Amino acid sequence: MKKSLILFALLMLCGQQMFADDLSTLTVLSSDSTMGIGYGSGRWDKKMAWTDIYAIPQKGYYFAGWDDDNMDNPRHICVDEVEKVVTAFFAEVDCNE
Question: Quick one: which of 18, 42, 23 has its CA closest to 82?
Answer without folding.
Answer: 23
